[in-house]
Amino acid sequence: MSEAELIDLEEIVRDYAGGFLDSHQKKDADLKNPIIDWSRMFVTYGDATYAAPVAPPVPVSHVLFSAVFANNTPSPQTYALRTERQTKSSCTVSFSKTYSFGVAISLRLTPPNPVIEANSGFKSDFTNSKGQSQTFERQLVWSVDNSITVPPGFQTKAELVIKEDNYDGQFEVPCFFEGTILVTYENKRREHVGTVREHVKKIFAKQRGFTTDDQGRPKFIVKGCCKCRFGVEQSVNLTETPLADENVE
Predict the structure, then answer these.
(1) InterPro entries under this entry (predicted)?
(2) N or C: which end of the chain has fewer CB within 10 A?
């Protein structure tokens, strides 16, 4: 994915608030480093919408364990099949369009489907630093505890097989802004110069990347890509073949 389009809310607030200072305040204030209080601003996240992948995912099967049980006796034999193996599922979320304020963004992202949420380590709430991608991982344990009966003169090959699925799709998340932002200016001696308090409706109303919803709230659409690889099921495949005559007692 190409470099993300990152909208810096802090820069927007600095530019907006600076316009309310008079010429004497601008001369005295540290305009590049105002104190921005975000505590009265609230962000509400809508549900993510996912576009259908261009190519339908194709599940892939992997053999995690195999064993051969041979019976060269004149009577059926029963063998224990016990094993445990681990695989790693992963999900990477990256952004093509997002915003930041301070050093990071906090985002709530609903998963593409419940299977991905359960098996890939997908997290709905995460903090992403400056628009970079983030990968979640989860260890999955696959186990078998069974018995296999092999007829006389035969051998049975047992394979523990897991099926992995994948997902690669684009998503959009609507973000709605409410509340006010307080910007305080000081001079180099840390003395108070001026304070600007404004509603987010006025600050973000016509800024790049923002629209307005039917309630008049500034709305920003975060866009990105979600790539996941995850196990979905296991099976034990048994293949029975006759032994060569010289191996049978």
Answers:
(1) Aerolysin-like (IPR004991)
(2) C
Q: What is the pLDDT at residue 245?
A: 66
Angle at 170 between CA 167 and CA 176, to 5 degrees: 130
Phi/psi of residue 3, nearest 5 degrees: -60, 140
Per-10-residue mean pLDDT of the chain, 249 residues long, equals 78 92 90 93 91 77 95 95 93 88 70 78 64 81 94 96 92 94 93 94 87 93 91 94 71
CA atoms within 13 A on the CB side of 66: 10
3-state secondary structure of 16: helix
Q: What is the dihedral of CA 205, 10, 39, 127, to 10 degrees?
A: 110
Look at residue 130 in the predicted model and tell me its pLDDT.
54
Listed residue (131, 162, 158, 163) closest to 147, CA to CA = 158
- Residue 157 pLDDT: 97
Q: Could you tell me the two tokens for 10?
A: 């802090």
What is the predicted pLDDT for the residue at 6? 85
Q: Which H or E run contains 232?
A: strand 218-242
- Paired residues of 3 in beta bridges: none
Residue 158 pairs in a beta bridge with: 67, 238
CA 150 from chain centre, in angstroms, equals 46
Residue 115, helix vs strand vs coil: helix
Alpha carbon distance 110, 142 (integer Å): 27
The half-sphere exposure of 145 on its side-chain side, counting CA atoms within 13 A, is 0
Return the amino acid letter for 206: K
- State the greatest distance between any 2 C-alpha atoms of the chain, in Å, as a whole number: 105
